Amino acid sequence: MASHIVGYPRMGPKRELKFALESFWDGKSSAEDLQKVASDLRASIWKQMNSAGIKYIPSNTFSYYDQVLDTTAMLGAVPARYGWTGGEIGFDTFFSMARGNATVPAMEMTKWFDTNYHFIVPELGPDMKFTYASHKAVNEFKEAKALGVDTVPVLVGPVTYLALSKPAKGVDKSFCTLSLLPKILAVYKEVVADLKAAGASWIQFDEPILVLDLESQKLQAISTAYAELESALSGLNVLIETYFADVTAEAYQTLTSLNVATAFGFDLVRGTKTLDLIKGGFPSGKYLFAGVVDGRNIWANNLAASLDTLNSLEAIVGKDKLVVSTSCSLLHTAVDLVNETKLDNEIKSWLAFAAQKIVEVNALAKALAGQKDEAFFSSNASAQASRKSSPRVTNEAVQKAAAALKGSDHRRATNVTTRLDAQQKKLNLPILPTTTIGSFPQTVELRKVRREYKAGKISEEEYVNSIKEEIRKVVELQEQLDIDVLVHGEPERNDMVEYFGEQLSGFAFTVNGWVQSYGSRCVKPPIIYGDVSRPKAMTVFWSSTAQSMTKRPMKGMLTGPVTILNWSFVRNDQPRSETTYQIALAIKDEVEDLEKAGITVIQIDEAALREGLPLRKSEQASYLDWAVHGFRITNVGVHDTTQIHTHMCYSNFNDIIHSIIDMDADVITIENSRSDEKLLSVFREGVKYGAGIGPGVYDIHSPRIPPTEEIADRVNKMLAVLERNILWVNPDCGLKTRKYAEVNPALTNMVAATKLIRNQL
Ligand code: GLN
Ligand code: ZN
């Protein structure tokens, strides 16, 4: 019985690759230094899997930036603006594509399916010349071989690669990137020949595109592509790997009919329906790589349950054809639990990071082969049992309160137009009110104050005074700028989710539980392990302190339940909706406490609501339903005169505009400036919108200062589509990553532009 790992994190247990990359980019270390760190990391991962007993060990899942960009390099698909003239692609060209350079901007980056990992989007056109320009796959295969480890080289599959590509600038938007299939297959054939010559006996093609709702044309491309590769692949065992969801019946049919394939890999954690497809028929003589160990979360596997699943699969595909695997690459989970010094032993016993998941995969494979490690299985069983019964996990009052929510819709009693009138009487705001999204620049000194307070180096009093001073500065600045609705600047927050998680029960935090987000950037999601409750008010002190410094309305600033959920490692022992409702109740208490303390405008950020949208259309309506419901729960209890704002990032929400309306916030501020005002097109097309709306008037991701005329122009464009009395003026998102030298002039211009237009109205 064999074991397989789909892919492994690259960053290293303590983010070694991140630091090596950043030091290289800063010119502080050489290319050789960076390569040394990288090859040491690869070697240790291969050896780790090898000694754990994994049979099919992946290679080429390492990357200096991103595996899709690696594929672009492999195919020589470098956009002309980088001036590459041929030959093997080196760090210069590679990192210019990833990050831009002094003269040329980077390629676009976007989310990898529904994960928080971002890939570099290939830019293709009919004239692109493809050549075999990066030998990374074969080099890594040889490197592992020299270490005595026989690996399975992994390539991003040709159809997934093309389907995720976009037409380059200047190419007709309707250009079908899949039409380039014959051209890229020519290069794939060269790569395959190279791998064969180097002694590979297996090859893995990742085709996660197969989990989407695919048009027949894309399914056809799968058949065509792999038929075309057939002779090149002869003599090799070919694994076609899918992940992140179940495959549709049509995709399953197409996939399992591929002659060339020896093996198929499926995600059986998120893709439970695939199990039924397999039970309905699996091609005889082929291998099933069964992804039963979750690559997207940090929970220890329920080994007994997995073993049951595997046993039932064994009956279908045969003993020697079943391979135990991970549900997807372990890239999307934390690296190694061994480095968690702050988690207590009970919580630790419930967890498995990438390094522990390897051991789980192998233990399952051995158990299937009749060599069950009884001690390992029984300690796993007791950990599962302790997690089920621990009083730290279950809080009956919370469960009851969450259960009582069912059956009600939770809508504010009055409609939004009436509420806005009541609010306006109280707030008395000018037309086109100006505001910002929440955070102000986080200076080095500010981070130092928080760090020292956490480490016990400064007293609470000193800490509170420093933060108060910071708030006072931010308030004074906004008054000088003549902004209408103020924020306190969020100086006490490290991160908009962590800040709340640390004050809620049911959350745990890791020291090294980093997950790659893009390039060298990693995030450290909190772990939600138990029922969520709010022991005491979280933001009231800071918000009322800030309000006491000004006569203008001060926004209370909260993170919404869906965003807290989507940016955490969540429980797998109850539906995500349930966890959301629990968080919603905690935030509801906070909203009501803020209202009692005299805060009249409260913003509840749902920055990540859109990104939690399931991959498969059939699951989207239900997600949006409970997500939007969760948001409404937070503010159903406030008076008409309390103005509820929400804020959303990410520019692609035209598809969920009706859910946004259904959130029933009084005002929404929304990222807009990088999307060619795509948002406005929905209103142009007649979507009725009655609440206040602030489509961002400038991009905060860039250091560029937007000129007054440019902002005025944007506002005028919005006025052409939206009624003037619902329009707000604000930046795209929080200002935390910017410098005051940028924020001051940008906001000055924003207010000037607003006044210019007010005078013309
Ligand atoms: N209020 C948060 C801030 O301004 C919102 C951040 C976000 O949308 N990502 O920082
Ligand atoms: Zn935002």
From TrEMBL:
Gene3D superfamilies: 3.20.20.210. L-methionine binds at I437, G438, S439, E490, D605. This is 5-methyltetrahydropteroyltriglutamate--homocysteine S-methyltransferase. CDD domains: CIMS_C_terminal_like (cd03311), CIMS_N_terminal_like (cd03312). Residues 3-316 form the Cobalamin-independent methionine synthase MetE N-terminal domain. HAMAP family: Meth_synth. Its cofactor is Zn(2+). One of its GO terms (molecular function) is 5-methyltetrahydropteroyltriglutamate-homocysteine S-methyltransferase activity. The active site is at H701 (proton donor). Zn(2+) 1 binds at H647, C649, E671, C733. GO terms for biological process: methylation. It comes from the Eukaryota. It is an enzyme of class 2 (transferase). 5-methyltetrahydropteroyltri-L-glutamate binds at K18, N116, R521, C522, W567. Zn(2+) 2 binds at H658, D662. Residues 432-755 form the Cobalamin-independent methionine synthase MetE C-terminal/archaeal domain. Catalyzes the transfer of a methyl group from 5-methyltetrahydrofolate to homocysteine resulting in methionine formation. Keywords: Amino-acid biosynthesis, Metal-binding, Methionine biosynthesis, Methyltransferase, Transferase, Zinc. Belongs to the vitamin-B12 independent methionine synthase family. Pfam families: Meth_synt_1, Meth_synt_2. It catalyses: 5-methyltetrahydropteroyltri-L-glutamate + L-homocysteine = tetrahydropteroyltri-L-glutamate + L-methionine. Pathway: Amino-acid biosynthesis; L-methionine biosynthesis via de novo pathway; L-methionine from L-homocysteine (MetE route): step 1/1. It comes from Vigna unguiculata (Cowpea). InterPro entries: Cbl-indep_Met_Synth_N (IPR013215), Cobalamin-indep_Met_synthase (IPR006276), Met_Synth_C/arc (IPR002629), UROD/MetE-like_sf (IPR038071). Its EC number is 2.1.1.14. Binds 2 Zn(2+) ions per subunit.
